[in-house]
């Protein structure tokens, strides 16, 4: 017997329809690439997305075509997304922080036919356009007035291209399993891999991630996604904010402490989301200027482990509640969020921070397990480490073109490549990437724990830990430190600071100071590069 409910396909453009109907006047405010702050609303965004869909169709783009974007978070980027998806074409966000050759490789792999590009990134496309065989046309996200000279043959300004149609258009109809978007993971091993979202997975992810124990979004919120649209759908906020009818504030290209502060303050932002490095910059700016955050109530921090110091400062000094979250491009991206379950509601001080330092628990639709190297499930006791594996309706079932098959298991689980433990209450804590964990005498040492502890030292700006070969223990930890400007800590001071806070055998064998720690395009510490830099390093304990 079948249920007798209507067949209402879960299509992404229904989200912007809903926003326009129910929350049409709700603002979308952006810092434009040209400079001034731009104001529009959901009704307008929908109307212009429809025009964009019409213009695409007029130019011959169809269901399944891949259409790239290389752009910061602005209203125009949002219009591109909904317009592209509205004809069943596939938005493909490119990360401008990648090397131009990598961008060209990814565009060729995805066979992008058209690209929408910010003014700032046009030179990148000019440099690689002749290497991307599939690319037919370049649309620069600006108006005629700001349109620069370009040597490219088929390049046009967005506003005049859009204004050639009248907007009298209806979204196309297609199956909810149709591809909606693509995003390549940075591929710390091998080539980047293409994650392909469907309309259905995006809508389900938005429904799930808007829940109170996940992002908890509602019409009365003002949301600033610092996290870019090209980083796993801005953690889904590009769908959740219009679905909830929240005011949306887009930071454009300015990610520095002052730039973010201005948008937070001027627009009275109540909720924001970013990686730890962005928050470190903001906190530093606040400390230097003595400014406060009277409107901001909650921040989500993810993409890399959140140091305890960030949790503490936000909550104690600025009265902003922090939600530590974990996810992956392959998970749309939310996997867990560190909301506080009722049994912990009375926790305060250090005990509450202990809980918040964990990445949290999974919302409905994310199933997790941890396994050892022989694929035996490990208990949820908060101690047993294992490879973290996940499954659910907004989690990849394979990569584009069948790459990376080994990460997808027969029982439907995806191997995240992270190492974690889970406690009996369901709280998960990432201890490492599987390839970064240090194996000392057959036991595992978490580099993340050591890094987070070291950055708590007042004279440390950034810390990274890598394993160095050791004749007796196989590997032992080396702590690599960037000093805060004007500070001269000694290695032994930092080790002293860490003593007693971790097991004795986890203590780094040595400390090394560097000017800079290399980062990936998504802001993570580039351990591969660090391992290369320290390939000839000999630990003092090894001689
Ligand atoms: P990329 O792999 O392209 O850099 P992703 O955003 O997909 O970008 O990265 C996902 C990975 O980031 C996770 O597998 C995990 O290793 C790391 N990560 C994300 N959030 C956290 C977090 N809160 N704590 C620790 N690691 C995290």
Describe the overall structure.
It is a single chain. With 543 residues, this protein is α/β, with parallel strands linked by helices. Among the domains are: 13-27 and 36-197, Rossmann fold (3-Layer(aba) Sandwich), CATH 3.40.50; 365-433, Luciferase, Domain 3 (Luciferase, domain 3, Roll); 438-542, GMP Synthetase, Chain A, domain 3, CATH 3.30.300.30. It has helices spanning 13-22, 42-58, 75-86, 100-110, 122-128, 158-162, 199-209, 232-235, 237-244, 257-266, 276-289, 308-318, 349-357, 447-454, 491-498, 527-533, and strands spanning 27-31, 37-41, 66-70, 90-93, 114-117, 137-140, 155-157, 179-185, 193-198, 222-225, 247-250, 271-274, 298-301, 321-327, 334-337, 367-371, 386-391, 414-422, 428-433, 438-440, 443-445, 460-470, 474-483, 510-513. The strands form five sheets. The protein has an eight-stranded mixed β-sheet with strand order 2-1-11-10-12-13-14-15. A seven-stranded mixed β-sheet has the order 7-6-5-3-4-8-9, sandwiched between helices. The longest helix has 17 residues, at 42-58.
């Amino acid at each position: 017997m079948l249920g007798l409910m209507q067949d209402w396909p879960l299509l992404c453009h229904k989200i912007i329809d809903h926003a326009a109907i129910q929350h049409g006047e709700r603002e979308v405010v952006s810092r434009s690439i040209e400079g001034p702050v731009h104001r529009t609303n959901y009704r307008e965004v929908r109307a212009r997305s429809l025009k964009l869909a019409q213009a695409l169709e007029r130019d011959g783009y169809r269901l399944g075509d891949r259409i790239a974007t290389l752009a910061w978070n602005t209203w125009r980027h949002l219009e591109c997304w909904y317009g592209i998806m509205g004809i069943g074409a596939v938005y493909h966000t490119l990360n401008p922080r990648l090397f131009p050759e990598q961008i060209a490789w990814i565009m060729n792999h995805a066979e992008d036919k058209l690209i929408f590009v910010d003014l700032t990134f046009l030179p990148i496309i000019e440099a690689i356009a002749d290497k991307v065989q599939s690319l037919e046309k370049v649309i620069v996200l600006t108006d005629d007035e700001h349109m620069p000279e370009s040597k490219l043959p088929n390049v046009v300004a967005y506003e005049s291209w859009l204004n050639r149609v009248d907007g009298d258009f209806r979204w196309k109809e297609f199956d909810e399993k149709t591809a909606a978007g693509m995003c390549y993971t940075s591929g710390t091993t091998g080539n980047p891999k293409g994650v392909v979202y469907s309309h259905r997975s995006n809508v389900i992810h938005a429904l799930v991630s808007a829940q109170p124990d996940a992002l908890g979004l509602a019409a009365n919120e003002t949301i600033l996604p610092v996290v870019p649209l090209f980083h796993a759908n801005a953690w889904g906020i590009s769908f959740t904010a219009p679905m909830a009818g929240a005011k949306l504030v887009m930071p454009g290209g300015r990610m520095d402490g002052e730039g973010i502060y201005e948008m937070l303050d001027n627009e009275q932002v109540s909720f924001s989301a970013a990686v730890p490095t962005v928050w470190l910059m903001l906190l530093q700016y606040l400390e230097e200027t003595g400014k406060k955050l009277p409107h901001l109530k909650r921040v989500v921090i993810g993409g890399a482990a959140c140091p305890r110091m960030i949790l503490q400062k936000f909550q104690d000094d600025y009265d902003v509640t922090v939600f530590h979250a974990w996810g992956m491009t392959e998970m749309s991206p939310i996997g867990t969020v560190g909301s506080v379950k009722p049994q912990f509601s009375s926790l305060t001080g250090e005990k509450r921070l202990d809980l918040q330092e964990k990445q949290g628990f999974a919302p409905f639709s994310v199933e997790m397990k941890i396994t050892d190297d022989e694929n035996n499930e490990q208990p949820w006791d908060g101690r047993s480490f294992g490879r973290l594996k996940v499954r659910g309706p907004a989690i990849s079932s394979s990569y584009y073109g069948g790459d990376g098959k080994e990460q997808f298991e027969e029982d439907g689980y995806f191997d995240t490549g992270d190492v974690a433990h889970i406690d009996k209450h369901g709280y998960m804590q990432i201890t490492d990437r599987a390839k970064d964990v240090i194996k000392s005498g057959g036991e595992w040492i978490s580099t993340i724990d050591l890094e987070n502890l070291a950055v708590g030292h007042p004279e440390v700006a950034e810390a990274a830990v890598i394993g160095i070969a050791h004749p007796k223990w196989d590997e032992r930890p080396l702590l690599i430190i960037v000093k805060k400007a004007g500070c001269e800590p000694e290695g032994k001071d930092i080790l002293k600071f860490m003593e007693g806070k971790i097991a004795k055998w986890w203590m780094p064998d040595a400390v090394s100071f560097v000017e800079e720690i290399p980062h990936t395009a998504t802001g993570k510490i580039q351990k591969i590069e660090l391992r290369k830099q320290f390939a000839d390093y000999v630990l003092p304990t090894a001689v």
